[in-house]
Amino acid sequence: MALKNRILSNGLASILQKIIRVVEQLFLVPFFITAWGAAYYGEWLTLTIIPSVMAFSNLGFGSAAGNSFVLTYASGDQQKAASISKTGFYIITIMILVAILVSALTIVALDYFNVFEKSLIEKSDAIIAVSFMIVAQLLMFYLQLMEAYYRAAQKAALSINLITLKSAFLIGTGLLVLVLGYGVIEFALTQFIVILVFILLYGLKGRKVIGLFKTHKGIKDKAILKDITSKGLSYLMLPVWQIIYFQGSTFVVRIVLGPEAVAIFNTVRTLSRSFNQFLYLVEPTVFPELQYYIGKNQWETAKKIFRISILGVFLMSIIGCILLALFGPWFYAIWTKNELYLPKAMWYISISGLIFNALWYSAEMVFRAVNQPKKMGVFGIVSAVISVAFTYVFAQYLGLVGAALGALMLDILLVILILPLGCKLMHMSIGELFKHGLEDFTSLNQQLKSKLKSLKN
């Protein structure tokens, strides 16, 4: 299949995935509020900080092994790719076992200090539900390595569609639990079952698609183990800064402003970033091809893919910001059934981060494509700490508006730090990015016009 056709297939699959992702983020919120109440739902969001931390962590050793696998396979060294797969699976399994132990100790410590006693959720229910959610997220650690099989086989669209199907099942089971009036234990249990079945079937299908393991048997290699471990630790900095930012800001708002403010802060952040899901269509669409051509050492094609991606996302983010400014408050009122009050200043500050977020997120994929995550991790941690600190200070004086200002700091800092370095990794300057990017868009536009004209004739 030609590059354009693969990108088109990836794009169509990504569109469906992001639609389901937006539904996953927005659809269940009114049902949560109706079934459990705003304050109880706010406590549930706070309670899920632990499994959320686990969810972010799957970008560590799994990403290191997965990206190494794709780059090695694309370069033609299939035996080493098979060994990377086996070694990576071994490391991820060890990581899961360690994470289970750490999580168990964390829950025991929280219970010892009576943290669960302070929650609106019954202590025993909270512990059981959190345990199910933790194990479910730990199983997802395998996803990054399994996903690499599809990318290396240039079947990224199939992978995206299977992940989308999993999300649809999560929404369906979650809705069923809430409509039937069940609580946090039943909700967590059904999510765990869906993820367990998905991981088993997704992994088996991926191995069949790549076909590598029929002809090559991997071995656990010490050199590969060392390389994956080194890069995996660097990748772990990526979820660390996201944990600091997302869970840290949620925790700060809970301490300073209370549980209902957590519900407002998180729902505003979710809705204001809902359009980001459409911007993020670009990354899964082009990333498999970008990484593949980097692995093949075909830099001119890779550069063109990168330039079109960055400028396309930038233009779409401007449109999204305008639409959210016009219609966001109206939709928020309907979405939350007027149960939560939306400060207008908070809303406009939150949506302004859309443009900054779109730029740095699109440039960030280069760090993963070349399998060099360290600097991205360092930049992220520094920016997240600064952002959470500002959130704490501003929230004390300006309430939710101040919390939104603090959160915005992260996106501004990351654009300043990441975009120039991302261009450098792609062997170009920011000036070249925009200059040649406009040329790429002009050429692409002419090709589309020519194709449409030929179809009419």
Describe the overall structure:
Helix content is 85%, strand content 0%. It is mainly α and 457 residues long. It contains 18 helices and no strands. The two termini are 25 Å apart.
pLDDT < 50 runs, ≥5 residues? none
Helix-strand pattern = HHHHHHHHHHHHHHHHHH
Q: Which structural category do the helix and sheet elements fall into?
A: mainly alpha
Rg to the nearest angstrom? Answer: 22 Å
- Total number of beta strands: 0
Rounded mean pLDDT score: 85
Characterize the largest beta sheet: strand count, sense, and whether it forms a barrel: none
Strand content: under 5%
Global morphology: globular
Query: Termini separation (Å)?
Result: 25 Å
Number of helices: 18
Kindly state the percentage of residues in helix.
over 70%
What count of structural domains? Answer: 2
**Regarding quaternary structure, how should these chains be classified?**
single chain
Keywords: Cell membrane, Membrane, Transmembrane, Transmembrane helix
Subcellular location: Cell membrane
Protein name: Na+-driven multidrug efflux pump
Membrane topology: Multi-pass membrane protein
